[in-house]
Amino acid sequence: MSRADPRHGALVLFSGGQDSTVCLAWALSRFERVETLGFDYGQRHRVELDCRPVVRRELAALDPGWAARLGDDHLLDLALLGQIADTALTREREIALQADGLPNTFVPGRNLLFLTFAAALAYRRGLPVLVGGMCETDYSGYPDCRDNTLKAMQVALSLGLDTPLTVETPLMFLDKADTWALADALGGAALNELVAEHTHTCYLGERGLRHAWGYGCGTCPACTLRAAGHAAWQARA
Ligand code: ZN
Questions:
Q1: In angstroms, rounded to a whole number, what is the distance separating the alpha carbons of residues 91 and 127?
Q2: What confidence tier does 85 reach under pLDDT thresholds 50, 70, 90?
Q3: 5-236: CATH superfamily
Q4: Ligand 1 centroid vs 198 CA: distance in angstroms?
Q5: Over the stretch 90-146, which tens digit does the pLDDT of each residue have?
Q6: Which whole-number Å values give the CA distances from 50 to 20, 21, 114, 158, in the listed order?
Q7: How far apart are the C-alpha atoms of 27 and 69, rounded to whole Å?
Q8: Using CA atoms, how far apart are residues 103 and 139, in angstroms rounded to an integer?
Q9: How far is the CA of 203 from the centre of ligand 1 (A)?
Q10: How far does residue 206's CA lie from ligand 1's centre (Å)?
Q11: In the chain, at which end, N or C, are there fewer CB atoms within 10 A of the end residue's CB?
């Protein structure tokens, strides 16, 4: 398999949350070599970053094939995002909806920056595919998570690097219940238990109380979404 073959390898944007963990499992099921990339941008809570090595270790333990394919992890320091964003994720502020209808957790253009750095790293590592957990059905409506934005980035990055780069977004048109179902299809009950136990979603960084869907305060927007998705998925089964 040549380096240009898309099956050769992928770089997964991996935050340590539910969505990117399912994306990592998806990539491990498809590509010969899978590396992971995380961004440290001064998140108010570092719980998610702390989950990353644990999730990687647990995914490798789940499946020997996945263990063989799982390559290096990269963590890029994007502290400069804290200088240009005034948001609830990076500062001690209440999470609320802004006048434009977006939650104030939105860092303008954050995914555009992430994808550009990811593409530069993927180029250097000889990986022709980027995998991200962006989702158009997400309640928050981040414009840099939309399918057309991602398609445009794929074209811009491929042209700018003068090499074909594919941006895969397996969750783009899934809702949260579908995401639990996808994990079930990829790795069965063991993968969903891994997601519940080891990934982090809560905006408040709460990990005290374990629910069926995982740890969290249970009331912030991220917890509410995750809990509702889990309940909807269970109701389908
Ligand atoms: Zn929460």
A1: 34
A2: low
A3: HUPs (3.40.50.620)
A4: 15
A5: 555 555 555 544 455 557 788 999 999 999 999 999 999 999 999 988 655 678 889
A6: 14, 13, 19, 32
A7: 9
A8: 10
A9: 5
A10: 6
A11: C
CA of 200 to the centre of ligand 1 (A): 9
Give residue 99's identity as a one-letter amino acid code: A
Residues in the chain: 237
The residue written with tokens 């869907």 in the block is 213
Ligand 1 center to 121 CA (angstroms): 32
Mean pLDDT of 53-77: 97
How many whole angstroms from 159 Cα to the centroid of ligand 1?
40
Taking the centre of ligand 1 as the mean of its atom positions, its distance from the CA of residue 176, in whole angstroms, is: 16
Residue 19: closest CA among 132, 129, 117, 130: 132
Q: CA 58 → CA 39, 163, 211, distances in Å? A: 20, 34, 20
In the chain, what are the domain boundaries? 5-236
Distance (Å) from CA 180 to ligand 1 centroid: 18
pTM: 0.89
CA 17 – ligand 1 centroid, Å: 13
